[in-house]
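Researcher: I'm preparing a figure for a lab meeting and need a structural model of a single chain. I don't have an experimental structure, so a prediction will have to do for now. The sequence is pasted below. Please return the structure as tokens so I can convert it later.
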Amino acid sequence: MPDGKQHTPATAASGLLLLFVATVTVQGCSGSPSPATFESLTISAGLSQTHFWVGNYMDPFADTIEVETDLVFTRFYAGELVAVGGELDALESGVIGVAAPLLAPYHEGRFPLSDVTQLPTYGTDSRMITRAFQRLLASEVEVRAGKTFYDYEITDKGLVAWGLGATGAYAISTTGAELNRVEDFRGMPVRAGSALHTIVLERLGVTPVTMPAASAYEALSRGTIDGIILSIGDWVSYSLEELLTYTLTDVAIGHWQSYLAVTQRTWDGLTDDQRDSWARVADAVTTRNAEYIDEQDGAVRARALASGATFVPVQQLPVAMRDHIARAATETWIQWIEQTERNGHPARATAVLWAELVVAQGGTLPDGVANYLALEP
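Model: Understood. Here is the structure written out token by token.
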């Protein structure tokens, strides 16, 4: 990797002393200080390099920035410096300069509207959801008086952020149990990765077991859980390809989105040229990341099929089962909106905007959602 430093756990402690190498603040003629200009930034991922948000986003982004600018990144992987869910605190405290990714859903209650991408949809993939999310971040539509989605979720926290390539469709997969009847869901322990996953699983009649995806291998191997909600392409990130043998497809239990993020102070400390390169490269890598994620989704599925795994499109299920899943999907939208609104956040306005963006990209909403949101046909 060009000029960058890659750290292992053994060198992580020494890396703390090199968080930022900045030029000395220069006093202008007016006597007011100019912002520090950062020459080196610590960039951290709580995920391993095998994950598509690290090996195919963080690294290509950092590599390109190091070629185009004089910035150099000191890189940490797999939570060796900051664990999953600790990214915001680490940015605010200066422990890291860049979170890649900042996993918003693991920051419980702190990014309440970012879960909107996890609402169930039909016929969506990474590229569609990535484009919709980029438009959500750029939208001038106010979700609360005077605040856009970006203002509410990002600016108000003192951050500057870009969306990554969205995961593929989250699907329900099991270690072999077939899901043909409504009764097959009842009581089955299934991994949930977020509060919104818990809602949809409870609506299906499943017993949600909340845990990070990194803990799923052991839980599935031991029989602590019988299934998981995860995108198919993500199986390889957690060594799950040999464990998961039955999957329901063509209904997305949402898509997971996260951010490349820095603090406003760090952003202001970059030069104009550095900021221009950063924004352009971030958007370009996001587009390539989404393409890669869709390709990986297909490749993992093909390998699983060759090994005897079963993928069942939801349209091939018995009518009672299809209706049950569709009803759970619709009820998940309603419950998330009303629950988040009760907590004081503009979930309904966000959901309306998100639904319109998803449909504009060719996605389909669960039956009843458009009516509930009073969307125009």
